[in-house]
What we know:
The chain is an alpha+beta fold and 627 residues long. 37% of the residues lie in helices and 20% in strands. It folds into 4 domains: 4-230, Histidine kinase-like ATPase, C-terminal domain (Heat Shock Protein 90), CATH 3.30.565; 237-380, 2-Layer Sandwich (Ribosomal Protein S5, domain 2), CATH 3.30.230.80; 404-489, Rossmann fold; 499-625, Four Helix Bundle (Hemerythrin (Met), subunit A). The termini are far apart. Adenosine-5'-diphosphate is lined by residues 37, 41-42, 44-45, 83, 85-88, 96-97, 127-130, 177.
Amino acid sequence: MTTATHEETLGFQTEVKQLLHLMIHSLYSNREIFLRELISNAADACDKLRYQALDNDALYEGDSELRIEIEHDPKANTVTIRDNGIGMSRDEVISNLGTIARSGTAEFLKQLSGEQQKDARLIGQFGVGFYSGFIVADEVTVRTRRADLPHDAGVEWRSKGEGEFTIADIERAARGTEIVLHLKKDAKEFADDYRLKGLVRKYSDHIEVPVRMPTVDKDDDGNETHGWETVNEATALWARPKSEISDEEYKAFYKHVAHDFSDPLAWSHNKVEGKLEYTSLLYVPGRAPFDLYERDGARGLKLYVQRVFIMDDAEQFLPLYLRFIKGVIDTKDLSLNVSRELLQQDPQVEKLKSALTKRALDMLKKLAKDQEAYQTFWNTFGAVLKEGPGEDHANRDKIAGLLRFSTTHTDSSTQDQSLADYVSRMKEGQEKIYYIVADGFNAAKHSPHLEIFRKKGIEVLLLSDRIDEWLMSHLTEFDGKTFVDVAKGELDLGDIENEEEKKAQEETAKAKESLVKRVKEALGDHVQDVKVTHRLTDSPACVVLPEHEMGFQMRRIMEAAGQPLPEVKPILELNPDHALVSRLETAEGEGFTDLSRVLLDQAIIAEGGHLEDPADYVKRLNALLTA
Ligand code: ADP
Ligand code: MG
């Protein structure tokens, strides 16, 4: 045995301790994932070595045949996972296996629900895979040496997973890492050839590095020959012909690349030859990662150049609004020594990006045929896809086809109606697609602006996501029909209203001219204008913004963000058939002003707006109630 020197015992970071505690005490339901995690790390280590060896062949130390070996010893009750990948220096061991600097850890601990099943799913996703060894082991020993360091720079790391670990320098001829799991009493089942082989096939078939296990052959005379057998398929999954890949294999590969424990909703595997040469395998996840809305959250694809792993999270190959897509791009069109910086300048990257964007959008279009699956997708990622029309003008129409909305047709808060659905239900004579934006679903659904539309049976899209007003400012038309915000500008129902109706409206407007004038005087500079409206059937009044003004929802978002905005004054529209408006006609003096102001303020409140002077509103309302 080697002698260990420079031995020291260090405490784990608090978060690691919490995590270990969790691993050890609550993750029984899916213990076998430890093997997936450790093989995945070994494969990453081989990928890294291969990449670094591209410009430094010496790193191979004469052995460029990368491999992972799994051995077990039923007597000692151990399972060993070994690789001849990049290995780790002493400092790397301390920081990689003793502290988790990743922002993900704190997040991981926050999301823990106590439900074991769910927690187990989260493990890989947060980059805490190594510690999963402690699910089955009460002691873990790691021996490693980094590929560019001398033999005496080996490191041994030992821990019982109880708050501290011991680290020492050792002599180690073999490059790479070996992890010895000293199995817990109740985890002996894993020290079994058959069990281990099954798990390797289940989780690691798609890993390109061969995973080997020892074999013993006995001849007739009882002589034993020891050898190695490659257990996994050991070819990069995406490089194999589609027809030979089963759904199970696609799903297993997804879990590896996406660090997700649940199945993907869809995938698209393409091999392209010609002007561009690439293979892509893209997935739509079934659930959102914790950092979907974080600015610097991980996103993008795993990049390979001619089957050599180059980097994780290559974000240059898909637009931001498709950041939830996971997968692999393998291309011949980039050079092997490409870096993140170089990617930004390479014109090939733009071409690949636009090709992959099309692939991803086509995949979603296909997914949309399965309503239930698409609804899951939409509920999870819809709000992200809504960033699309603003970001990607070229694909605006395609994206529009993928959008789903709540509408007055169903009056349900589930966004499940497409624009094509809407168009197919349009009234005779209807030329526009009507929508309303409000702060919440109920505010939209009950907005006074919808009254005339409900009366006439015209469908209106009900929008209430934060991003919706921004979305609508970039969606100009669908299927040749323009979009109209029902709370802005003149109400124009086109040919839906007949000549008689229009004439009657004009007559009413004339008849109320003097009332309108009086209200306008009473309201002074609180309004831009006052009009008689036919939008309303139940409410006495509503406020409307000029057509090209920023909407109320966007204003509130910008104001909340501290953006200075120019003041806009609303247009007050009165319902001539409402009892309160009739009352207005007979009111005078102070009472007239009170009622005018109350109608205005109520209309603002119904819109979800804030009153500048709420106490004044209450005072006037009370004066009217007690009059
Ligand atoms: P992740 O794989 O998501 O980075 P892990 O907890 O699985 O998180 O591993 C933590 C880190 O430890 C890895 O990023 C890597 O730097 C290092 N590591 C783990 N296993 C190995 C290995 N077999 N060879 C080299 N480095 C490893
Ligand atoms: Mg890992």
